[in-house]
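Recall the central idea of this unit: under ordinary conditions, the amino acid sequence of a chain determines the structure it adopts. In this exercise we apply that idea directly, starting from the sequence alone.
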Amino acid sequence: MSVKRVRVTVELPASFVRILQAKAELSGWIKWANGCVKPPEMDAGSILAWLVLMEARGAPEEQIHVATPIMWRAEGPIIIHEERKVFEE
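Accordingly, the structure predicted from this sequence is:
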C-alpha cells in the first residue's frame, strides 16, 4: 500500500519567524524541548509551526527529529533540510 505525501516549500520573512518563536515560548514548546517532563498540547498546526521554526532557526536534522513528538515521527511531517535556503534582498 502506498502512502500519499505532499511536498510544499514555504518562504518566511524574519518577522514571521519571530512570531513563531514567540508562539513557541508562550505555548511552552521551548521548555518542553529543553527537558520539561510534561509536553504541551500540540495539534497538527502547532507541530507544523514548531518544525518550521526549528528549520528556520537552522536546527540540525537530528535535533528536529528528537523534538518531534513521538506520535508524529512515523508518518508525520518530514523536513527536507537540503531545500533550506537563507538569503537577503
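The chain is about 50% helix and 0% strand.
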